[in-house]
Amino acid sequence: MHKKLNKIICCVLAASIAATSMLCYGFTTFAEEEGTTAEQQQQQETTTLPPEEETTLSEEEAREEARQKLESQKEALEADLKAAEEKIASLSEASKVTEEYINALDAKIAVLNQQLTVLDSQVLAYQEDIDILQKDIDENQTQADALQAEVDRIQAILDELTERFNAKYDAYCVRMRAIYISGSFNLITALLTCKDLSGFLTRYEMIKAVSKSDAELLQSIQEQTEAILQQESDLNVKKAELEAIRSKLVIEQEDQKAKQDVLTETQEEIAQKKVILAQDRAESDELFAKLTAETGMYTEFRNEDKEITEAVEKEISDLIAGIITPDQVTEYTTKPRDEAEGESSSDIEVYNRSDAVLSMCYPVPGHTTISAGFPNYSNGSYHGGIDFPCPTGSKVVAAQKGVVLTVKRLNYSYGYYVMIYHGTDSQGRTIVTLYAHNSSILVSAGQTVYKGQQIASSGSTGNSTGPHCHFEIRADGTRINPKNYLT
Question: What's the pLDDT score for residue 22?
Fold first, then answer.
């Protein structure tokens, strides 16, 4: 009987010791798992960050290479600008109303235009970088907000679990304290002081029930400990991710501010360059007007806005591209074949696959002096035709027979100009002539004209330094040297 009692007592004590050991083991495990979580987090960062970093670096390197090229161009142009200014300074000592001085000034203007192009490209590059950074910042901020919400949610769960754990743990500590204070002999006494076997068995069952309750309490504590460990692990991971994103956000925002500062400086530099460019262009035009007035060799001002020139050229190109050639006339007629029989290419006053179309007369009879030739002005800038100085009101004639394609009256660029379609040469190219800067126009679109017929009176409308006729020949829309076809 005593042996059974001893066995029961040992079981109860073993349960208590095991419970205490398990509780201690739980806290040890907590510390170990916390350390493991940090290691796993570090390994995760080590394995996931480099690919992103590598991709970012690759894109950044491409943009950096483009930025360096622009910076190299900018430095080279600064050297060219300095050389142009030195030449202008040396020439200004004599007289500014000379072609050499004006050409030097135009060379400086050309460099300034190139600089503005480079600066505009730099602005676009900086703006692209800023936009990319802003997109990353927005995405990272969204992710940071989501992570913060997740951190708050996990923290709330953890707080609730901790509160429940503390209640269970306090209850268990009270139980362990009671066992410790009562000592093992109290248990023996409780059993041995029974008056009969029935009382003994009743107390024994009570002790078993208490032990079972202790075990269940311990099991509950262990489960809650594991839940807390898991939530703390998740919380640490999310906090680390949140901290990494916030650090990245700070870096990106600083980088964006730096790029915005550079962008602002570049825009200010553009503004300064435009002021200098406007002053130099005004001086060049004024001096060039004086020079052409002295020599009578009138032509165009050579610094017209690029946007204006491109817009006019596009309109002309689109118009020429829409021409129906003599070969296509029958293809586009909407009349029945028998009714359209009388309409053939021979009835149209244009050439059909004949080089005779390129045998042209001078557009201003009696005026063959050229003030500006093809394909460049004296300063090297592009000139798509040839200029014939002549008094205002001089007769401007069709260089070859044809149909008036269009008539325009502009206060810029070509001014009052006429375009005539002459047909096609032996290669099938559409041949069109253009007569610009007239004071008046005597024909209208769609009108048939013969070679040598007056179509306009010369003048100085649009971009012009004085009365002259600007004459062009275009083959399939491409300007060719008119001098080669004038007889």
Answer: 37
